[in-house]
Specification:
Order of helices and strands: HHHEHEHEHEHEHHHHEEHHEHHE
CATH topology of the largest domain: Rossmann fold
Number of helices: 15
Structural class: alpha/beta
Shape: globular
Number of strands: 9
Low-confidence stretches: 1-37
Radius of gyration: 24 Å
CATH architecture of the largest domain: 3-Layer(aba) Sandwich
CATH class of the largest domain: Alpha Beta
CATH superfamily of the largest domain: Vaccinia Virus protein VP39
Largest sheet: 7 strands, mixed
Length: about 425
């Protein structure tokens, strides 16, 4: 994830390219951002890493249960040094820790790590991180660009459930170079394939500006065409103007839809990542999985990760406040979180009640978006369970969620079934 000048140019020479002034300007902006980013963890990385922290254990546990020898793979296509300069965990160090934690509890799972990084000095730091923290985990470091390393890694991981993590600083590799990830076998008995990638909102906005500029640089637009798998995104953006936020959302949704199609109809999650609530997104994390369990578990992980992100921001605000005393902010944060969760439960309760008014039982998994409404990816199973209990207490449902392990697949039954309508044949 390091954005040095040489690395940026290598990543963007997809054919005959000429570096233009706009590209140089974008490069300098990326460079300035990366200096701070690579030194210490910033709030977007807190959220991103919290997603990995909370999703890796269930991914390892569930997919490894059917894998030969309990082998699972994690591929970091833009690994960076593994740790920040101030010593905090980067993605590499975090993944190594989660792999070792899984092994230490006797899970029978072995996480195989594949780290890709093309910047020489960063590769050296990554190698040092691996040497000091892998503790015997199988790890391979590829000192090359993601586009050239992925075919080799695909060959090594063909029999493993694999989570591909593509988190570049700037533009992704071209869609056609990423599509082989989705060509791994799917269906019953095939090893799981899941992808979590970073789609840059700031880069999209910069490049899309060329569409309406009298000084447009076609090569800059072509680079985005390659990332998106075609020029379709141009008209999608223009059709939504003058609402640039809607244009951005439409392009991201279109990219996610194409990811889904390339993966044979996989489900997708999209998370907008911001510095703070109310700020413009810096990038979007897009997750694709072919299995409903993967999607549900990722939703649970996202909810937990957002909580950690809000806590991080609350701590920062307290540190910057002249009126902060010790850990007084902790109680304020807990109260605010309790109010948030109360509101989520109330809304989920109303949504369930509306669906139950149809008089038929249903599984939440089959009506997930309707149940969670605007809180998809924010609320999680514990809030669904609380809403269900409230409905049971009020006599709206007849079955209890207590003791139900998989609340998403368990039917929720209305207390009053839909009335039966008798139909008589014409005489």
């Amino acid at each position: 994830m390091r954005c040095l000048r040489e690395k940026w140019r290598d990543q963007h020479k997809w054919g005959n390219s000429v570096t233009d002034k706009n590209a140089e300007s974008n490069l300098e902006a990326n460079l300035m951002e990366s200096v701070v980013f690579h030194t210490a963890k910033q709030s977007p990385a807190v959220l991103k890493h919290a997603v990995l922290e909370t999703y890796l254990p269930p991914f390892i546990g569930k997919t490894g249960s059917t894998s030969s020898g309990g082998a699972i793979a994690f591929v970091d296509g833009y690994a960076g040094p593994g740790r920040y300069l101030d010593g905090q965990e980067g993605s590499g160090s975090l993944v190594l820790r989660k792999g070792n934690e899984s092994r230490s509890i006797g899970s029978g799972r072995t996480l195989h790590c594949f780290f890709v990084e093309q910047d020489g000095p960063t590769v050296q730091r990554l190698a040092e991180t691996v040497a000091s923290e892998s503790e015997g985990l199988p790890v391979e470091v590829f000192a090359e660009a993601a586009a050239s390393a992925l075919p080799k890694i695909l060959d090594r991981t063909r029999d493993f459930p694999t989570l591909f993590y593509l988190d570049p600083c700037g533009l992704l590799i071209p869609f056609e170079q990423m599509s082989p990830l989705f060509e791994r076998p799917g269906g019953l008995g095939a090893p799981a394939t899941e992808v979590l990638l970073n789609f840059s909102a700031t880069t999209l906005r910069r490049v899309a500006g060329h569409l309406s500029s009298p000084n447009r640089v076609e090569r800059t637009l072509t680079r985005m065409d390659e990332v998106c798998g075609g020029a379709w995104w141009r008209q999608v953006w223009l059709d939504a103007l003058p609402d640039k936020a809607a244009a951005e959302a439409a392009v991201v949704a279109g990219y996610a839809s194409r990811m889904s199609a390339a993966a044979g109809g996989a489900g997708v999650w999209t998370i907008d990542v911001r510095r703070k609530p109310g700020h413009m997104p810096l990038y979007y994390l897009i997750f694709a999985s072919r299995h409903p369990d993967g999607l549900v578990l990722f939703g649970e992980s996202t909810s937990l990760a957002l909580g950690k992100w809000r806590e991080y921001l609350a701590r920062l605000d307290a540190q910057d406040s002249l009126f902060a005393f010790g850990d007084a902010w902790v109680e304020d944060f807990k109260r605010a979180e309790a109010e948030l969760e109360k509101a989520w439960v109330q809304d989920i309760t109303l949504n369930l009640e509306a669906l139950l008014s149809e008089g038929r039982s249903f599984k939440v998994l089959m009506r997930y978006n309707e149940v969670f409404g605007e809180h998809v990816g924010v609320a999680r199973g514990k809030h669904l369970r609380a809403a269900w209990k409230d409905l049971l207490k009020r006599g709206v449902v007849r079955n209890s969620p207590v003791g139900v392990k998989d609340i998403f697949r368990h039917p929720i039954e209305p207390a009053e079934p839909a009335p039966t309508t008798l139909k008589f044949a014409d005489v």
